[in-house]
Design brief:
Length: about 550
């Protein structure tokens, strides 16, 4: 079958090569056609190709069975379970399990017993690359800037020379004019003037060779175009600023400059983002406005990216007006000599960045592996600290909770929160001891009895308690007997009345804790006891509480 995606790219899949019976091959092909159809879920060549390599191992497993199923409806639960158990409990194993199960479930002939077996949970541990440390992140950003900056300055210098040549500001009898002519050909065709015979050792026309300086890439097409590795460095810088994944960056359309912003010296770029894995879901498409307000701003990356890719985009537009991509690079060797299945090309130009180019750039600057995935995790988890083209649940569950640096950073925050909660509880929970009657040695305070006035938890030992009488209910030295109930009930009633007439900030600072402790005491004593205490309030109790709230006592 043939899959043609929304971008016009084509990939063919030969199901006749799968080692299963012909009926099974036809069934898998029909299911593939359904998935590759518009709205079927696999909207890109990358999706269908990734699933093809996940489904092939399933066909190879079936071919090794003693009783090979002839078609989907002949597949048994035992065979499916055996396939599932043969998979490693890792990401790759789960991906194979999910891909095959998702495809076969579309066939109505699949038996109920197999569907039930597919519903069994696949236990696996997700491996992931941790976020970069601050030092690693800074180093990657630095070397990416160095790579791209060098390319930008090279393209800028040659673009300025080409503009001068086209404006007639270069003498026609000079080497500078001849260089301008070579650059003009390069800008229009993607190559400097070349001999058409591949057998010639140096294909650059002889008359241009001295002014170009040689026939290597740095002397010819690199004068106006980025290489694949340089484009990967640019993609890294974009990911560093926005925390986007490699596919989104790779397929980024040319940003639009919002009207009137360029004239102010602070252009605002509208980015149209798409996350294809969210096909059919909210959040697949997103737009962001990015401002260039200085050398270290996120928008400056796009200002320089537009400048560096302008010659290549102009050449591509002349060859194929339907292409709208920001990241455009020039091939190093002819595409026909390379195995890049599914890649879109226009003339000598390619688009975007992938794992191979990211890894190649990283290796060229002394790093290991493509950094795109780890940069996305680093930016979204540790820098932006918010979901990036994911739901909040996915961001928290997949990215934050599994990141060691995030867990380490959370430890003091959680500890501070726990201490704060403990302190709040201590301040708002009634701490005084409840008793049946006054004991010998107790001293009476305005609100409670006191068993150890000299050793208060609120003042230095041996100096006597100097704390507010409102804090007696928060003191372990305090004792509350039924004789104190009316006075405390009157105090809570008075605080309720006071709450409606003071500013909220004053209430929270001066009275809220005492009110919370008395409310806790009311709950402990119960409604009948508390109501009895209110009914037993005397004139002396009222006068005493009024004096306390008016500050006539030393608080």
């Amino acid at each position: 079958m043939e899959h043609r995606d929304a971008q016009g790219r084509v990939r063919r899949y030969d199901f006749g090569r799968l080692p299963v019976p012909e009926d099974f091959q036809r069934s898998l092909a029909a299911l593939y056609v359904a998935k590759c159809a518009p709205g079927g879920g696999w909207d890109s060549i990358e999706s269908s190709e990734a699933n093809w390599y996940l489904i092939k191992p399933f066909a190879e497993f079936l071919a090794g069975l003693d009783d090979v199923p002839q078609d989907v409806d002949r597949l048994t639960a035992a065979q499916w379970t055996a396939w599932r158990l043969s998979l490693p409990p890792r990401t790759n194993g789960y991906n194979k399990f999910a891909a095959v199960a998702g495809l076969l479930r579309l066939d109505p002939r699949l038996s109920a017993s197999v569907r039930e077996a597919m519903a069994s949970r696949f236990f696996w541990s997700r491996g992931h690359d941790p976020a970069y440390t601050p030092e690693e992140f800074s180093e990657i950003r630095r070397v990416a800037r160095r790579t791209f900056r060098s390319a930008l300055l090279r393209i800028r210098e040659n673009s300025e020379h080409l503009a001068s040549w086209r404006d007639g500001r270069v003498p026609s009898d000079s080497d500078a004019w001849l260089l301008g002519e070579a650059l003009d050909v390069l800008a229009r065709t993607g190559d400097v003037p070349l001999y058409q015979k591949p057998s010639i050792r140096s294909r650059v026309l002889r008359r241009y060779r001295p002014v170009l300086g040689g026939d290597g890439a740095q002397y010819t097409w690199k004068r106006l175009h980025l290489s694949r590795k340089e484009t990967a460095a640019l993609a890294v810088l974009i990911a560093v600023e926005l925390g986007l994944n490699a596919t989104t960056v790779s397929e980024l359309p040319v940003p639009r400059t919002l009207p009137g912003t360029a004239e102010t010296g602070r252009p605002v770029y509208r980015l149209e983002l798409e996350k294809r894995r969210r096909s059919g879901h909210r959040g697949r498409f997103e737009s962001r406005n990015i401002t260039d307000f200085g050398a270290d701003s996120p928008g400056r990356v796009f200002t320089e990216a537009l400048e560096a890719t302008a010659p290549a985009r102009a050449a591509v537009a002349a060859m194929d007006a339907g292409v709208d991509r920001l990241l455009v690079w020039h091939q190093t060797t002819p595409h026909g000599a390379q195995a890049y299945p599914g890649e879109e090309r226009v003339g000598p130009f390619g688009f975007g960045v992938n794992e191979l180019s990211g890894r190649a750039w990283a290796k060229s600057v002394g790093l290991s592996g493509s950094p795109m995935r780890r940069i996305r995790r680093t930016v979204n988890v540790l820098h932006r600290r918010e979901a990036g083209q994911n739901t909040q649940d996915t961001h928290d569950r997949v990215y934050v909770l599994s990141e060691p640096q995030a867990r380490e950073a959370a430890v003091p925050v959680i500890a501070d929160g726990a201490l704060e909660a403990l302190d709040f509880a201590r301040r708002t929970v009634f701490t005084a001891r409840l008793g049946g009657q006054r004991e010998d040695g107790d001293r009476e305070t305005v609100t409670t009895g006191c068993t150890d006035w000299e050793n208060s938890p609120f003042t230095p030992a041996g100096q006597g308690c100097a704390a507010s009488f409102l804090l007696c209910t928060a003191c372990p030295n305090a004792r509350v007997t039924p004789a104190h109930h009316p006075r405390l009930a009157r105090l809570l009633q008075a605080l309720d009345n006071l709450r409606g007439v003071v500013e909220p900030a004053v209430w929270e600072t001066d009275w809220a804790d005492a009110h919370a402790r008395l409310t806790d005491l009311r709950g402990r004593l119960g409604a009948p006891v508390w109501q009895g205490a209110l009914e037993a309030v005397t004139f002396a109790d009222r006068a005493l509480i009024d004096q306390l709230l008016q500050g006539d006592f030393d608080l």
